[in-house]
Amino acid sequence: MQHSRRQAAVLCVVVALCAVAAACSMDRGGQPAPIPAASPAERPQAVAPTPPAETNVYGALMTDKIDPRLAGITPRVYVPNAGSGTVDVIDPATFKIIDHFKVGKIPHHITPSWDMTRLYVNNTESNTLTEIDPRSGKPTRTIPVEDPYNLYYTADGSKAIVVAERFLRLDFRDPRTWELIRTVPIPWPGVDHLDFSADGRFLVASTEYSGYVAKVDVVEMELTGQTKVGGLPIDVRLSPDGSVFYVANQGRHGVSVLDATTLREIDFLRTGKGAHGFHVSRDTKSMYVSNRLAGTISVIDVATRRIRATWRTGGSPDMMQISPDGRQLWVSNRFHSSVTVVDTTTGEVVKTIKVGNNPHGLTYFPQPGRFSLGHNGVYR
User: Fold this and answer.
1) Domains of the chain from N-terminus onward
2) DSSP state, 187?
3) Does the pTM of the predicted model rise above 0.85?
4) Residues 6 or more apart whose Cβ sits within 8 Å of residue 52
5) For a disulfide at 119, which of 101, 132, 232, 268, Cβ 3.0-4.6 Å?
6) Please, is 304 exposed, middle or buried when counting C-beta atoms within 10 Å of its C-beta (0-12, 13-18, 19+)?
7) CA 36 to chain centre
């Protein structure tokens, strides 16, 4: 996420780091725009309570069964092409592109709504979300939202969190009207990915260009702490038992393991050059790590916190999604205009599918789970 109109000091940091480590995305420009009013979304208000800490926070995902609410939705893989301003839609049964449409400028991720009734394309440069109806697979409307590089939801569904990376802040919004509730400034450049504690009361966000991770209370909506991990921290993911956060570090070429209470780094796992994104296996026993500069995917055993395997997939693996049956890992290749499908049993490449320019946060939908926490498909 490099930006052409940042403050001079921040820009120098971004240019230097990106030249060395091929950081997460391309230049994005534009001035802050006023936040316009948006029409209400046509879906029910979130009412689920904040879930308590559990033995396995991903327990609801340990099945290939799709929630009955999602019955009748045809499985599709939606790929946002950041360099093309388009979305490719793939039939996962045939590996063929079955649709293709224009969206806004620089679409980085496709995010399922908290209640999983909508998908949102995060069009960063054009300050919009493109809403997709997953039943038809077609875009339905465009919503004005400032700088939506990434999008998340609190566990109770009451707030959407727009990661306005260009402006160094998290914007808490009403997920029905998209009106701004509160802005939380993040005083380090490159805020872009995050995950939540087991009880959903706080989040941990990476700040890619500073080497810090930030802790934010989602109830009070305020910054409450930070830890310096160095390098270029990218994706963040909570362990199944809720005891640690994994932080992929593209600059240190591995994964920081942070105590979920103190945020102290208690371990570091060397996975591969350009460690970038995470996904949890269907049985929740493994954490997949994409090593974007190495062209590999590492498999972390979450019980032992050790590397079980490293698969050589080629390309530039970025963000990932798993099939409902857990047998395939779908991976966008950021610099190779393609999507790779990997067999999770053998680590072998099943298929490589050509897509648009700079594919990023693809989503495979629908998926098992009670609700979506956002990003390109993080469920609990």
Assistant:
1) 8-30+57-379 (2.130.10.10)
2) S
3) yes
4) 199
5) 132
6) exposed
7) 25
